[in-house]
Design brief:
six-stranded parallel β-sheet; alpha/beta; 378 residues
Length: 378
């Protein structure tokens, strides 16, 4: 690196909700705070204004498009941005934008870095070739060991090029002392939470089959009592048929009044604060899974499925519990254990969870490690 501050350009499809988008903004913030210049190219979205707040610049391009000719046009546009703004390094976070970014990097001679945020399907040769752009980076960031193992199993890449950088939890957002009482009261009123002492079980995540809400309902139905309130927190509009099947399952299981679908919320840290237990019953492995990490940062006991990123963020029996996938009986037993845990053991688990997240999965750690990758490549 020369004496001039680096200019980093991140590219992604769009800037709406999601882990890719949040990660982009978090790293854009770190770049600007380091005194570097932070640029982002995407198709835009509701999170775009946040880039301005953190000191980054945005360039609108149709990077969500997968059409070959659009990818080539995007590559030319990115090359123009690279030359005009003297970009030092380009960082791609998704496949279609990565093809454009890789072509632009080759054309301008700057380093190219990628991040694997998830597990891509590789059913046929065409799909594998399309995915292959994600291992063309001079460094390839994997958001978990699970993802790194997947990369090594399915793509031709030297292991020393992979850097494992777990997603980070923002201590300014997910901390009990940062929760706003007014928001807490508003959320309790909106969800019409009862005044009784029933424990609140939280299942955050978009309502879709692989998130496993049906497994949770089956597990709750097996409990010998209804002394709880379970809230399914997440949008239902993408999979209305599945949402309707959950409503019918709740009715069949005599869980009406004990299980509610409350939709999405922007007050997720307040939702954790209101809960006694957090459940993540996904039936497919999550690449990282922010919910178990966020719940631990809030000092809440968490039960998750024993696969994917949850095996890395949860220390089984010490910061939460891991159960076999798609196993309602095991989940039901874990729920019983969590709800009957003595107070002193619950407090010890909360302290363990807080240490685990702040030591290994904090936003600051993630930002620091990512900038180290940039420095290494530059």
């Amino acid at each position: 690196m020369n004496d001039k501050p680096p200019v980093i350009l991140q590219v992604l499809p769009e800037l709406n909700t999601g882990g890719v988008e949040r990660g982009t903004i978090e790293i854009a913030t770190a770049i600007a705070q380091a005194g570097w210049r932070s640029l982002v190219a995407s198709g835009g979205g509701k999170l775009t204004p946040k880039l301005g707040y953190v000191g980054a610049e945005h360039f609108a391009l149709p990077l969500v498009e997968k059409n070959y000719f659009t990818i080539r046009r995007n590559a030319r546009a990115l090359a123009a941005i690279i030359r005009k703004h003297e970009v030092s390094l380009i960082h791609a976070r998704s496949r279609a934008p990565a093809w454009s970014a890789w072509l632009a990097a080759r054309k301008t001679g700057i380093p190219f870095v990628t991040t694997f945020h998830g597990i891509y399907g590789h059913q046929n040769r065409v799909k594998r070739r399309y995915n292959g752009v994600m291992v063309k980076g001079e460094r390839v960031i994997a958001v978990s060991r699970f993802v790194a193992d997947h990369i090594l199993s399915h793509y031709h890449i030297e292991p020393e090029l992979i850097r494992i950088i777990h997603r980070g939890v923002d201590a300014n957002l997910f901390a009990t002392d940062k929760v706003m009482p007014a928001r807490l009261a508003e959320l309790a009123r909106l969800w019409q939470l009862p005044d009784d002492a029933r424990p609140i079980i939280l299942l955050p995540g978009r309502v879709t089959h692989w998130k496993g809400q049906h497994v949770c309902i089956e597990a709750l139905a097996a409990l010998p009592h209804r002394d709880f309130l379970c809230l399914l927190v997440g949008p239902t509009d993408k999979h209305p048929d599945y949402a309707e099947s959950l409503r019918q399952q709740i009715a069949r299981s005599n869980l009406e009044g004990a299980v509610r679908m409350v939709g999405a919320t922007d007050y997720i840290s307040e939702a954790y604060m209101l809960s006694s237990l957090v459940i993540c019953p996904s039936i497919r492995p999550e690449a990282f899974g922010r919910v178990p990490a966020e719940a631990q940062a809030m000092g809440r006991p968490v039960i998750a499925t024993r696969h994917g990123g949850a095996c890395e963020t949860i220390i089984d029996g010490h910061t939460g519990w891991l159960v076999p996938p798609n196993n309602a009986a095991a989940l039901s037993a874990a729920i019983t254990k969590a709800l009957t845990l003595p107070r002193e053991e619950k407090e010890k688990m909360a302290l363990n969870a807080l240490w685990n997240i702040h030591e290994h999965f904090s936003l600051a750690v993630m930002q620091h490690k990512t900038l180290d990758v940039y420095r290494e490549v530059l």
